[in-house]
Structure formats: structure tokens, C-alpha cells
Amino acid sequence: MTAVAPAAFQQSNVDYVAILPMLIVASAALVGVLVEAFAPRRRRHVIQVSLAVVGLLAAFAAVVWVAVDPNKVGHKGLTMGFTDGTTNHSVFALAIDGPALFMQGSIVLMGVLGILTMAERFGGVGPDAFTPSGASTPGSASESAAARAGALTSEVFPLTMFAIFGMMIFPTTNDLIGMFVALEVLSLPLYILSGLARRRRLLSQEASLKYFLLGAFSSAFFLFGTALLYGYAGSVYFGDLSKAVATGPLAMNGLLLPGAFLVFVGLLFKVGAVPFHAWTPDVYQGAPTPVTGFMAACTKAAAFGAILRLAYVGLDTARWEWTNAVVIVAILTMVVGSVLSVTQTDMKRLLAYSSIAHAGFILVGVLAFDRKGVGAVLFYLVAYGFSTIAAFGIVSLVRQNGGEATHLSQWAGLGKRYPLTAGAFAFLMLAFAGIPLTSGFVSKFGVFSAAIGTGGATGTTLAVIGVVCSAITVFVYARVIVLMFFSDAPDDAVEVVTPSMATTFSIAIGTLITLALGVLPSSLLDLADRASQFVR
Amino acid sequence: MTTRDLVFVVVGTITAVSALLAVTTRHVVHAALWLLVSLGSLAGCYLVLGQELVGLVQLLVYVGAIVVLVLFALMLTRAPIGPQSEISTPAWQRALAVVLGGATSALLAALLLPLLASAQVDLDRPETGTTQIAQAVFGTWVWPFELLSVLLLVALIGAFAVSRLVLHREGEAA
């Protein structure tokens, strides 16, 4: 049957230093699984948290090592593959370049803050935000039995590490199949984590199921688009895809547009762009609050990294085919996200709609199609990520009767009783609104000026709509601030519980970075700008 | 029309009809069994097209693992297996599902049929055999391949994290 003589097997060339950051995170996650099996229950929490934090910091050091490259070895470039000797056709699975390393570094650092907020115990034995028995019916006997027996959910730390591992690969992959597998590796732990909230169990289970089902649909879209693009170009590597479009119309030309469209649907779902945003408010509300903050910051960063690579390396030559569709998505995302955030009465849902609006602003930067736009997007993702982790960290501290008080009316008068907490939250709100001297202003200025500079008439239109939508969201955030500082507290007032060092640290760092990037943004802007060149 | 075409048409029809029955039947177990037929005959389609490895993987993974998993889930959750009138979908949802499914199929057919209708492949000398697939999986695709093992591990841990049950000791109040 096989008439084609098989060529000699060619092994992949792997630069192990270049992939060291990912290997460190993956091995920390695997060790975490073993800790889960062998460490005594009393010590498990401390071991897991310190293992995760140490692993992430080591991975960050490795990212810096690869990026700075002190021995001038040249770790940047394509790796995990080979160049075919006979056809001179190179197939590489990973692209270690500026945007990839920048995204890896920022995801790892935001992951540290995420882990620290998840580790909050409030004096209990296990992480406070997570239920010990996720599958049991809320309020059932087996649930209370699990709580009484002192069961922990310290599996959340290895799961989070696996999610971070997937997020690091997502913007680094150089082909559509690798991107799909990374998408699954990062999504699966998030589906599980969002169903494990200790309080308001039904909401959490609903969130998990919704996220899983819609996520499965979007993965299917992505995979189908991959199949169509493979049919078009005969390869799933971004370089081949770009070349196939550039060399001209092929027999399968009809597959390009639907393929690109379906792949973009899969990616835009992950960032919560309208009309693929339906899951965002429900999942943000139902998931444990520290997980929501982690998801909002890191998933968004990873998914935008992947969108950037697809838009600038894979489908750059086919830009005229898909730009208009993404422009419409960006406009819808900004408008729907900011208008609907006005009507929200729940703090977590409000932040969810705000994150949708931010996804729209970031898309404006993606559509600038210029190195400056890439740099602005990278800066925006870091600035927004640190602010949002801190904001959700504060939301998890405002409590009533032990549970989180997320209804807006419960926040009335918070500023008079807890000026420090409310002040930090108000500052983060100002950053989301994009007021000068916060990181939000610098990042919005970056994406809009990139869009006006190189986006042409479309870019200018997008920037104008973006500024109008920012003005709408200012109203939302100002209302929260007014509510906290200028209205009287109800009789059954909420309290701000005193968190552990870890949570305090991550909220403080998030807020300080928001301030620092607003006052002295030049060093990170410079870094993002230097990191904005993709390798092909 | 060669014998191969004839066999392909027969196997393909079985696949499509049993897939339709799987989504229209009111019995959960029937749906699982029709799914088994559909996935099994899809493996037949691959075999007719000369891709024996893909066909066998389809049999092992889908027929062997996934459908058995569905049946196990039905058994373990002690779900009622007869038709349930109180949780059955309302008529408008069924109509909407038919319209959406039909529209997607029509769209794909309109896209793919004109493109691929004239494509010719020599099935006696397939371009990719098992050897090429093996070389690709362990050569260029080794990284995604290893990642998939991480994905399976995550699924396993996730199942533990979600489904932990604390059993009552004898004599202890619930």
C-alpha cells in the first residue's frame, strides 16, 4: 500500500534554555500533584503555596535570563522543530520572541499575585474561597460532612499552575494545533476552578457549567477553523499560512475566510469580546473571587498574546479578508461593555462588564497593525492585569455575615468606615476609567494613539468610539466612588475583614503598580516597545 | 461507480442516519447506542478511504472509550433512562435547533462541495500512511503530543477536586 518511501526520521531540535520557564512551571505543577498525594494535611496548604510561588518566581528569573541572554547564545527564535534537509522547509512548534517572552513574564508575575490571593485562609485550615466538595448538592449532608471532616481543596494550586503553564504556551506557539492544545490546557483548570466557590454554591456550579459548555463550543469553532485553514494552506504553521496567502489565490481560496473567521471566534471568546461575551458576567460572578481576578488578568493576557500572533504572523497577509469583521467586533465590545456596565448592581458583574469594555479597547490597539500598536497592547495587558487582581482582591475582603457582600448597595458608606480599603478601591476604579496619573490613562492613551497613528480612517473612528465609551465608563466608576464616600452606611453595615500578609501584599503590589505605571510609565513602555517584534 | 464508492456511500449513510437518530431519540440509552453506531461507521468511512490508523484510533478512542464512558456515567448517576416529559425541551427550542443545525450543514455543504467535488485522490497509493503519521507525531508534533498528556492529568486532578466525597462513618449522624 505505502508506495512513498518513508524519509529518515528527523529529531526535533530543542533549545532547553529557551523553554526553561515553561518547564519550570510544569514541573512545579507536577510536584504539586505529588505533594497532594504524600504531604500530611496540616502542612499541605503551606507547602503548596510556597511551591507555587517559588516555581513562578524561578520561571520569571528564567524568562529574564532568556530575554537578556547574558552569554549571547541567542535563545530567541524558533525552537522545538527542525528544518527539512531536502525541501528546506522549516517546521517549528514554538516561537521565543519579544512578545512571547513579555507575555510569559507578565503572566508569571500576575500568577504570583493570583496564587497569593487564592491562598487566603482567614484563620481556617484550607483556602477560604474554595469549597471542599465541589460536586455535592448545595446544602446537602455530604457537603457539611466534607466541611466537618476538614477536607481541603489544595488541588487548586496545582490546577492554577497548569493553567499558567497553558497560558505561557498560548502566545508562544507557532502553529494552530499547538495553540489549540494550549487553549485546552489553560481552559480546563479554569472550568474546574470556577465551580469551586465556597459560598453561593449554585451560582458557582452554574458558572462552571456555562463556562465549560460555551468554552467547548468555542474550542470546536477554533478546531474547525484550523481544519479549514489547513485545507487552504496545506499546513498549520503560521509562517506557511502567511506565505500561502501571499503567493496568491489557490484552488482552495474559499476556505480562507471561513477558516480565519472561525479561528478568530475561538480566540475572541476567550477575551470575552461581544458577541462572544455571554459567559463573562455569569462566570465572573459565580467563580471564587480570587479566581475571577486571576482569570480576568492572566487569561486575557494569554489570549491577546495569541490574537496578536495570529493577526501579525499567521494571517497578516490576509488582513483585508478579516479586518472589517474584527473592527465590528471591537466597536460592539466597547459599546456593549460600557453601556451595560451602567446598569449593573453587583460589583463582580460590574467588573465583568468593565473587563469586556477593556477587551474592546485592547482590540483597538491590535487593529493598529504596527509595532507601536503591539507595544501598546502589551503595556495595556500588564497595567489592566495588575489593577484587576487588586480590585478583585479587595472585593473578596468586603463581607457580611461571613459571605462576600457584592451588591452595590452594600458598599454604601464604606469609605467613611474603612478609608484605606475604600481609597485603594477608588484609586483602582480611577485607573479603570483612565484618569491621568494612573496606569489606565497611559495604556488607553497608548492604544488610541497607535490606532490614530497607523490605523487610518478606521483607526481614528475606533479611537473616537473608544474615547466616548471611556467617558461612559467614567460615570460607572464615579458612581461607585460616590457611593463609597458620600452616602451613609445602612444599619446592617458590611465589614472589611483583615486579610493575611499574602493577600495584603498582592493587593498592595497591584495598587502600587497601577500608581507607578501611571506616574513613571516610561521604563515599561520602553520594554514593551522593544519587545514588540515578532519572529517568523 | 467502483465497489469502493458503493461501500463508502453505504457506510456514510449509516453514519449520518444513526447520528440523526442519536439526537432525535427520547431515550438516553438509545442515544448513546446510536452514537456508538455512528462513530463506529465513521471509522468504517476512514477505512474505506485507506486511512487504517485513523480508523482504528477512531474505534479505540470514540467507540471504545467515550461511548463506554457515557454508559458508565448513566449507570453511576442512577439517572432515569426512560423519556422524561417534565424535562423535555419545548417545541420552539427543537425547531430552533433544527433550523440552526440545518443552516450550519447547508453553509458547510455550500462551501465545501464546490471546492472538493472535483478533487481526485488515488486511494491505492495514499500520500500519508501510518509511517508518516508516526514520524510526524514523534518528530514535529512531539510538543503538542506531550502537552496532551498534561491535559489528561489536569482532567484527572479536576475530577478528584470536584467529586471528592467524604463518606460518613458508621453510626455518625449525617
The low-confidence runs of chain A, each spanning 5 or more residues with pLDDT under 50, are 1-5
The average pLDDT of chain A is 91
Number of strands of chain B: 0
Give me the oligomer status.
Answer: heterodimer
SSE series of chain A: HHEEHHHHHHHHHHHHEEHHHHEHH
The CATH homologous superfamily name of chain B equals NADH-ubiquinone/plastoquinone oxidoreductase chain 6, subunit NuoJ
The major β-sheet of chain A equals: 3 strands, antiparallel
- Give the H and E element order of chain B: HHHHHH
Contiguous helical run count of chain A: 20
Strand percentage of chain A: under 5%
Task: Tell me the Rg of chain B in angstroms.
Answer: 22 Å
Q: Give the radius of gyration of chain A.
A: 23 Å
Shape of chain B: globular
Count of strand segments of chain A: 5
> What number of structural domains do the residues of chain B give?
1
Trace the largest sheet of chain A across and list its strands.
4-3-5
What is the fold named in CATH at topology level of chain B?
Answer: Four Helix Bundle (Hemerythrin (Met), subunit A)
Helical amount among residues of chain A, as a percent range? 55-70%
Largest sheet of chain B, described in full? none
Count every helix of chain B, treating DSSP H or I runs of 4 or more residues as helices.
6
Structural class of chain A: mainly alpha
Family (chain B): Belongs to the complex I subunit 6 family.
GO molecular function, one term (chain B): quinone binding
Organism (chain B): Intrasporangium oryzae NRRL B-24470
Keywords (chain B): Cell membrane, Membrane, NAD, Quinone, Transmembrane, Transmembrane helix
